[in-house]
Please model this.
Amino acid sequence: MLQQTPVVRVLPVWHEWLKRWPTPAALAGEPAGEAVRAWGRLGYPRRALRLHAAAAAITQDHSGKVPDTYPELLALPGVGGYTAAAVASFAYGRRETVVDTNIRRVHARLISGTALPAPALTAAEMRLAASLLPADDASSVRWNAAVMELGALVCTARAPKCAACPVNDLCAWRAAGEPPPSYVPKGQAWHGTDRQVRGAVVAVLRQAETPVPPDMFFHEPADLGFAPTGIGVPLAALHRLNSAPEQLERALTGLLADGLAEMHDGGYRLPA
Ligand code: SF4
Model:
């Protein structure tokens, strides 16, 4: 849930999920569409499908307990190197090299003397991170957490608080005279994108209690006789985007292809 999503947006959804599905088996016991519905407005809803698939794999292959080694975690649906290392380290106290955006930024500035890490994770960065990791399990876990927090709270992307930084006397970037970044990080476009339209379509499906006929996506909700309540609310939000029919088509086709929607009785619904 936290991948590319701020903690404040994740917390309420996370609490709801844990209340509703306290174990992997509880989540795996419900249709995947319920996971997408409960994903709310967190974005990138494929993550909900993968979380559901991971819960199913954990239930089936690991007797319902989240595995505790990096290779087993990495083999779960939707789990990449970062998540596998983070769970093994923070949940199970194992010595694993955790490298997230915050840690990369701290390493870039503190050790390499550059304002920003490379646009994409490099093998050299992984080697550097591994070389810095303390040798014993407990210290390695504290190190991972400490560097991550330093990046999240002090060595922030836009305005690092160097005066308050506990390692400012060791910082290579400061020592080099704070050189500017060598590239401008790309902001993630959202308005008018296919992602935005897909998100609006999924919001309609989440609200719908029965399959949604294709027509509903292409016409003004008021023309279809919908009051601005219930499913009329996300339909109106979708319509306000003024998407071209081809873009709407693309969104619907993409959601079907990704398993985030399915056809039933001639309409679209979340996967059963
Ligand atoms: S001194 Fe500033 S740039 Fe260097 S690690 Fe600390 S916060 Fe980051």
Q: What stands out?
A: The pocket of iron/sulfur cluster is lined by residues 106, 109-110, 154-155, 160-162, 165, 167-168, 171, 173-174 (CB under 6 Å). The beta strands are 262-264, 267-269.
